[in-house]
Amino acid sequence: MIKKIKPYLKVKKIDVLIYYMTPDFVTAFPSLDYQIDKQGIDANKTKYSITIDSICIHKSFLFKKLNILKLIDRKGPTIGDCVTIPEYKGKSIYPFVINHIAKEVLKEDNEVFIIVNSDNVSSIRGIEKAGFKLHTRIKAKRFFCFTIM
What confidence tens digit (pLDDT) does each residue in 69-88 have? Predict the structure, then answer.
């Protein structure tokens, strides 16, 4: 029982940047020759992926709701947990996919967010290339289910 609880009892540092996009600044991103597949995982999570020769080269997730946005008094769909395999990095796949997700989301919502660790320079470049604007930086500590800024 204690082994299950122990990871939650550690203080975890949070240092993330939150970017956003609204319909006002959606940008046209050059189309790449990749098929983006969409798969509902559960009521809160949707997976977007690109697969080539049965290898998943990129995946991104869209969350309908994330609690971290409460820290900035916002709520809304949020992109996160994005991964491109090393062989395909630097080919604009990441900005292509998140721009695609944002355009799809903004047909129904006024705002879409994306969260990235503040030290992930390559992801930040991809996010900005896709047309997202910096909203804020969150530096906080999380203990159990409590977040302290």
Answer: 888 889 999 999 999 999 99
Task: Check residue 108 and give left, alpha or beta (phi > 0: left; psi -120 to 50: alpha).
Answer: alpha
Token couple for 117: 């660790």
Closest CA to 60 of 76, 73, 48, 77: 48
Q: Which of 19, 22, 10 is nearest to 111 (CA)?
A: 22
Give the SS3 label for residue 10.
coil
Contact of 76 with 113, CB cutoff 8 Å: yes
Which ranges constitute the DSSP H helices of 10-120?
A: 93-105
Place of tokens 């992930």: 120
Q: At 90, which amino acid appears?
A: G
C-alpha angle with apex 124: 40 to 57, nearest 5 degrees?
45
The pTM (predicted TM-score) of the whole model is 0.85
> Which pLDDT does position 59 carry in this prediction?
97
pLDDT at residue 31, as a whole number? 83
Please state, in angstroms and rounded to a whole number, the distance separating the CA atoms of residues 109 and 149: 28
Query: Radius of gyration over alpha carbons of the chain, in Å?
Result: 16
